[in-house]
Structure formats: structure tokens, C-alpha cells
Amino acid sequence: MRPARGQRSDGGKMIRAGPDMDRARNNSRDSCYHNSALPPGPRPPFDRCARSLPHPPIQGNGILAESPACFAWPGEVCTAPFSIAPLGKKRVVTMMKVAPPFPSARPWCPLGLWLLLGTAALVGCARFEPKPLSAADAAARLEGRSLTNTALQTFLQKNLHRELADWPEMRWDFEMLTLAALYYHPSLDLARAQWAVTRGAEQTAAQRPNPTLNVTPGYDSTTITPSPWIPLGYLDVPFETAGKRRYRRAEASGLSEAARLNLATAAWQVRSRLRSALLEHYAGEQRQSLLEQQSALQEQILHLLEQQALAGAIASSDLLPHRIALIKLRLDLTEAQRSRAEARARVAEALGLPVRALDEIKFSVDSLVQRDAMADLSASQVRRAALQSRPDILAALAEYAASQASLQLQIAKQYPDVRLHPGYQYDQGDNKWSIGILVDLPIFHQNQGPIAEAKARREEAAARFIAVQARILAEIDRATQVLRVSEQTAATLRTLAETQAQRRESVAAQYKAGAADQLEVLNAQAESVAAELVRLDGHLKLQQAVGAMEDAVQRPFEVPAAIFESTRTESP
Question: pTM for this one?
């Protein structure tokens, strides 16, 4: 017959478990102790119930099992234990308990807390910094740009290797204006930003894959001894194989170098546009001046003819062609003034400045054409160097190298990466460790698709390089032919202008000798001015041809290293 609730088998009372449950569990697992010597009075929240109950031997495959300690919570009593297990198996002890308010569990929360704190400590310190962009503020900064900026003065002195004592300068030559355009033009800011993106991609390519930590808490609701908690944690540590990281870095490096060289190409384009705008502005000024002279001469000629018509020396109808010519000259003068204003706006655009920043600024174009360098531009070694070392040629080669590295990367991806999988589990008092290896099995494909795409991109990069080289070759050939013809035309027009000037001087001498009248002198002067206008057009075309040749071979201007850094400030 089972003992009554709260009574021992010999009639005595049972004692509750003590406060040190873990120590009692470890030290009193196989026996109970009779605590009959406890003093009278209130008992602690946990008393140790200790007794030993004999059990008759069990026949067959059974063993004799003694009762472990019975741990009882306040308000809980122990009943008789029942323990039986087959031979060779772990003993299973069943202790009937009444109304447990919560299970006894060994705390594992500090371990998870330390894991969370360790993970938080590894989090990067980068923080998002808002950088709002306002159209109104950007427009105000653009409108505030000028050629009087002290930071621009420092930039010019550094790259000109000379002091600019009289600042701000009122007369700017082509070299100074070129540096100002490299300092201000927004296309270089865009090229620098694109280069910065590729440099960021280089950092991304150099990163190694991070391991991952997985912590899974678990709870076994069917048992409470020794602990119902079964937390599981494991790491996933990836290892790249076959040199994938090296090929990834090589691809990013090639694209970054191409972006850097594109910045040099953008600098050349800025210089080319500035040169073209300055030439047009110079030609507009000269044309306006010559047309003003020609209009004044035509007015004098018309005035003399009107006097002759009043005297009856000529018919009034003979005045009509001269009046029409004067009207055309006035229209040409108006067009020249418009072209000059437009050319000045184009100069401001090429500099990256508002037009009002050029007020009271004089341009010097004496250094635009160096006649002693024109022969050097057509030299065979310069042509060969342009086909091999122009920035866009080198950029195309860098892109091809990147496509090569991309193909190597895709071929390397045929070989799967290896991921180590160490793990730990606390399973009801047992510490369990494990380690696994995860490998992707190339069963359904061996990365053939990305390899085919990478091969096609490499062929595309090679074709793009050939196309760039062919375009540059055509530019050099065209510039060479145009330059040769422009030189001949300019020489012929220069001879014509000199001949007209000689005739003007001859007629002036005849007028002084009384062999010619004033009308002949005015006509000779008008013809000389007309010849100067034609010579000016020929000179403009020659300088444009020289500029096209410089752009084709990208000589003699050397792109300064300062363009690869943005040190501009918008302060006046």
C-alpha cells in the first residue's frame, strides 16, 4: 500500500527540499536522507526531503533502483518513487509530484546575452548622414562663381608654377582659362563621382564573406530534470576557393582604372570646348571690327556718289547698288555682334561660370596656335603614340582587362565554396558539440550560363577597343588632311590680303600725287577690308583644324594631376 500524502513509508513525515537544489541534485541523486534532527519552528522555502525506500529485487532484465532525491517546491509534497530500467540502459526514475508552480531549470540566459552583446560589438560604426540637395541653393552657388575666387588663385599658382601678384587678373590667356575650366566645370565633378563609385566597388570586391551565427532556443515540455532548456547555436564560416576574391578584385580594379582615365578624357573635352569657344569669340570680335570699318567706308562712298548725283555726274539709279551694299553690311554687323555675344556665353559655359563673371575680363588668344608645334602634331611618332596611349584607348584596355578578370571569376565559380558549420547544444545538462562541412553540389549546372555571358562580354570589350582605336585613327587622318588644306588656303588668303593692302597703298600714293580721286581711295580701302574679312575666315578655319589635330593626338597639353582631386570652394 502506497504511503499517504506527506507521510513516509514508516509513518514519519517527509521534509521539503532545501534551497540549494543543484547541489542537492548532484550530491543526493541516489539516496534520500532522513532529516529527523531538524529543529522545530518555521522551515526554509526549500527543505531537503531525504529518505530511503527499499524496493524488492526485480526479476528478469530489471535492476534494483533506489530513489533519488525528491525536490519539492513550497506547497508541494513528494510521493513514492518508481524506478525501473532494462539492463544496459540509463536508469529512469519517476517521481510523482503534486502541482509544480514552475519547473526547475538551470539558467542559460547569460550565454545568449553574451552572444548578443558580442554581436552588437562587431557591428560597424558607419552612420547615415543626410545630405539634402536644394535646387535653390545649388543655383545660388552656380550664380556666385567668379574668376576672383581666392581658392582659384591658389589652384592657378600651384599648376602654373608662378605667382599671380595682380589678383584678380583682368587679362586671361588660354592656359589660365583652361585651368579655370578644369577647376569649375561640372562634367569633371561628374567624372570624379563616377570614379569614386568604382573605388567603392574595389573595397566591396576586397571584402571577405562574413560568417553567420544562428542561435535557436528550445524548450522540452515533457521533462523538468535536470533542465527543460535545449538551446542550440552554430556558426556558418564560408571559405572562398579557386581564387574568386583575387579575380573579383582584378575586375573591380580594371573598372576603376577605366573610370580614372575617363576623367582625363573629360578634361580634354573641356579644353577642346573652351578652345573652340575662344576662337569663335576672337573671330567675332575681329569680324565686328572689320565690318564696322567696312560700313564706315561704304557710307563715305555712298555720300560721295550722292554728291555726284546731285551734280548730275551720275544717274540716281547708280546709287541703288551702293545703298543695298550698305544695308547688307549693317545686317552683317548686327549678325557679328550677335555671334560675339553668343560666343562669349559659350566661353562662360565652357568655363562653368555665369556670363556676368566675364564682365571686364579680356581674353588673350596669342597662345592658341603655336606655329612651331604644328609640324610636331603631324609627326609619325605622335600618331603612333596617340593610337597607343590616349586616355580613351587606355580606358578601353582597362575595361577589356576587367572583362578578362570577370571571365576568370565565372570559371572559378565552377568550384563550390566550402562552409564550416561548427555548433553547440546544451541538451538537458549535456554539452553537445558538432562540426559540419557544407558544399554546394554542381549537379544541375556547372555555371555554364554565366561563363558564356562573361565570354561574350569579353568579346564585346575587345570589339569596343577596336572601334575606339579605329575612330581615333579616322580622327587623326581627317585632322591631318584638313590641317594641310587649311594651311594652303590660309596662305592663299594671306597673299590676297597682302596684295589688296599693296593696292590700297598704291592708290593712296596716287591720290597724293593727284593721279586718283577720293572715291578710288575709298574703294581700295573697302576692298582691302573685304580681303581681311576673307583672310580672317581662313585663319579661323586653320586654327580650328589645329585644334582638331590637338584633340586627335591629345598633344601638347598634359592633363594636370590636380583634376583627380576636388578642392574647389565656392567662396568669392
Answer: 0.73
